Amino acid sequence: MAHRLSRALFTLFAFALVLPLFGCNLQFLHVVIPDFAASAVEGVQVWRLQEGTNQPIARGQLVFNGDPYVAPDGFEVIDYTQVAPDGTTGFTLQSPVNRNPAAPQQLELWLFYDRQDPEGWHKVSTYNAQGSSALSLAQSYL
What we know:
By secondary structure, the chain is mainly beta. It is 12% helix and 49% strand.
């Protein structure tokens, strides 16, 4: 399993090196969702923290295209599509899924995010049909 996950992460890394050649500013978002299935999570909202005020500003969504599944090469993945703040959709991408054996409902994901803003601090939240979670405690400089 560790070999497959390493191979999947290597593929993601190689993909990240190629896409900037096409004008994409891809960043990795490492996201842990503790209750993916129980909360019927539909996607991840990305927030940029405004300089000076730290006010969160919605900067796009990573919309899951269904539930995780086992790919032909044997490891679990989930498909997702980035939706920009203006509603423009990007490529459909895949993230490897890592599950905590002690808490199998918890998903650990490595998601590509095409940052369209200047660099800055970002947080995430998850959402479903009932609304959004609180913003993440962790933040990333993207």
